[in-house]
Amino acid sequence: MPYVPTLDAAVPATGAVPSSAVQRGLARRAVPGWAGRLAAALGRAGFVLALVVFLALPLAAILARALVGGEHAGLGALFAIVSSGDFAGMLWRSAAVGIATMAIVIPAAYAFAYGLARTRVPAKGCWRLLALLPLLAPSLLPGIALIYLLGNQGLLRPWFGDITIYGFWGIVAGEAFYTFPHALMILLTGLMLADARLYDAARAMGAGTLRTFLTVTLPGTRYALFSACCLVFTLTVTDFGVPKVVGGDYNVLAMEAYKAVVGQQDFTKGAAIGLFLLAPAVFTFVLDAHLRKRQGSTLSGKAQPYAPGPNRGRDTAFLFLLAVVGGLLLTLVGVAVWASFVQFWPYNLSLSMRSYDFDNMDGGGWLAWRNSVRLAALTAAIGTLAVFLGAWMTERVPARGLGQMVRGLLRMLALTPMAVPGMVLGLGYIFFFNNPFNPLNGLYGTMTLLVLCTVVHFYTSAHLTAVTALKTLDPEFEAASASLKVPGIVTFTRVTLPMCLPAALDTARYLFVSAMTTVSAVVFLYSPQTVLAAVAVLNMDDAGFIGPAAAMCTVIMATSALASLLLHLASRALVARTQAWRYARA
């Protein structure tokens, strides 16, 4: 499951915000109760309609295209595609890559997270930032870096003889780099939730370090482990960026879907493969929801925070492990960045800006980067407001009768994007919005549709962040506003959203970086005027411009890092001004 940042206590130590402050801040003419209820109902209905149009109907379009599209309509066409000669082989190869990546990433990420949460290694913040570095780059970057390291003319090729990076192990290595930070965030969250009393009891009963780990730590993080395994497997199976660069003739389902739509214009085949790519995500999503209900709370109100004690041997061992894993991640990123400044690989390694002359090569030029910045900014602004407004309607606005049913439907639709891979969502947008009979056909190829698709793609993670923040607020705020006959939307804009400012800025940062690096959901939706930077990397790699592709990845990473830094600084400054009441002393 995606990492969901939590918010600090929502009320100051001295108690709730005084009602006089609420009265001064929200003084308005009284609004009839029926008007507020009508506005809430219309708001929920609008959100449900938006999610149906931009999520449910595109997914239904995939199913319809797979079953009734093509020259031979019906299940026969789908069966013919599935029973074709290499389909079973691609299915097995995709599963093998997913399982192998999971077997590498989960132990490494668990050990890394353990070192950050349960040891006293120095500079934990720096190690965490280093581990999250791959989040700033598109999934094609590890493939490009592996070519520079172990390709036919790679730096390390003389050391490895006839071993080639193209194929199964190249895909696994690239996907391991790509999925590592996602698994780390989930496992780190699980390891941070620990009750020190359990460890005190284990020591009192004479349990050693290994037995304590097997009987206390591991069972306490089993849900996080399951979520991380599901996420890594799904991300690996549905990603085509790494297989596109280093896959060679090792064909997998995601790559076949991309070739069917872009290369062969066989949309029925692409839809059929899309259904298979959707299956593992839906299965893990349903199973995850079932386990979440059985999980219960991991910490009671009497829980005590766990603080690791000093242990030089343990800390030294985990410091070495963090250095090795961090060094591997930094090496892949560093090689790609360095290669982007090389004059002519591998014959002239002098530094040059030649690869950054994007306007004189295929891919989209600097226009692609400007479009990506525009997409990311619009996604962050519109997405953050929509996410918090939708979460507020589902969690804070009362509902009765039909309104409760609509609220339940809204909650279900808000969690659905988590189970939909980006490529599947992009395919659905092709079949739905590119249909000439669709009145929304004019959106296809526009920046508006790219923004909407990106917001929907990353909606669930942002929604869970907003829900977590809203649940920390005392219900007295809404009660006080209701007693003053203040419209709910005024309470939301003037009280709720400002109080949730830290989580809102975290959501904006997450949406900005995700929009800058995404490729799978938008690769089918752009036009020559709306080409994006991550798509330009794909196009330049297709054209054989691997140096410029590495350069564009570098530009994407630098832009994402700069935006993250600016939002972090803005968060600190705004929180210092608007959240000082949280830390007020009696």
Automatic annotation (TrEMBL):
<feature type="transmembrane region" description="Helical">
    <location>
        <begin position="444"/>
        <end position="462"/>
    </location>
</feature>
<dbReference type="Pfam" id="PF00528">
    <property type="entry name" value="BPD_transp_1"/>
</dbReference>
<keyword id="KW-0472">Membrane</keyword>
<dbReference type="InterPro" id="IPR000515">
    <property type="entry name" value="MetI-like"/>
</dbReference>
<protein>
    <submittedName>
        <fullName>Putative 2-aminoethylphosphonate ABC transporter permease subunit</fullName>
    </submittedName>
</protein>
<feature type="transmembrane region" description="Helical">
    <location>
        <begin position="163"/>
        <end position="193"/>
    </location>
</feature>
<keyword id="KW-0813">Transport</keyword>
<feature type="transmembrane region" description="Helical">
    <location>
        <begin position="546"/>
        <end position="567"/>
    </location>
</feature>
<comment type="similarity">
    <text>Belongs to the binding-protein-dependent transport system permease family.</text>
</comment>
<feature type="transmembrane region" description="Helical">
    <location>
        <begin position="508"/>
        <end position="526"/>
    </location>
</feature>
<feature type="transmembrane region" description="Helical">
    <location>
        <begin position="413"/>
        <end position="432"/>
    </location>
</feature>
<feature type="transmembrane region" description="Helical">
    <location>
        <begin position="318"/>
        <end position="345"/>
    </location>
</feature>
<dbReference type="GO" id="GO:0055085">
    <property type="term" value="P:transmembrane transport"/>
</dbReference>
<feature type="transmembrane region" description="Helical">
    <location>
        <begin position="47"/>
        <end position="68"/>
    </location>
</feature>
<feature type="transmembrane region" description="Helical">
    <location>
        <begin position="213"/>
        <end position="235"/>
    </location>
</feature>
<feature type="transmembrane region" description="Helical">
    <location>
        <begin position="271"/>
        <end position="291"/>
    </location>
</feature>
<feature type="domain" description="ABC transmembrane type-1">
    <location>
        <begin position="91"/>
        <end position="288"/>
    </location>
</feature>
<dbReference type="InterPro" id="IPR017664">
    <property type="entry name" value="AminoethylPonate_ABC_perm-1"/>
</dbReference>
<keyword id="KW-0812">Transmembrane</keyword>
<feature type="domain" description="ABC transmembrane type-1">
    <location>
        <begin position="369"/>
        <end position="567"/>
    </location>
</feature>
<keyword id="KW-1133">Transmembrane helix</keyword>
<feature type="transmembrane region" description="Helical">
    <location>
        <begin position="129"/>
        <end position="151"/>
    </location>
</feature>
<feature type="transmembrane region" description="Helical">
    <location>
        <begin position="373"/>
        <end position="392"/>
    </location>
</feature>
<feature type="transmembrane region" description="Helical">
    <location>
        <begin position="98"/>
        <end position="117"/>
    </location>
</feature>
<dbReference type="GO" id="GO:0005886">
    <property type="term" value="C:plasma membrane"/>
</dbReference>
<dbReference type="InterPro" id="IPR035906">
    <property type="entry name" value="MetI-like_sf"/>
</dbReference>
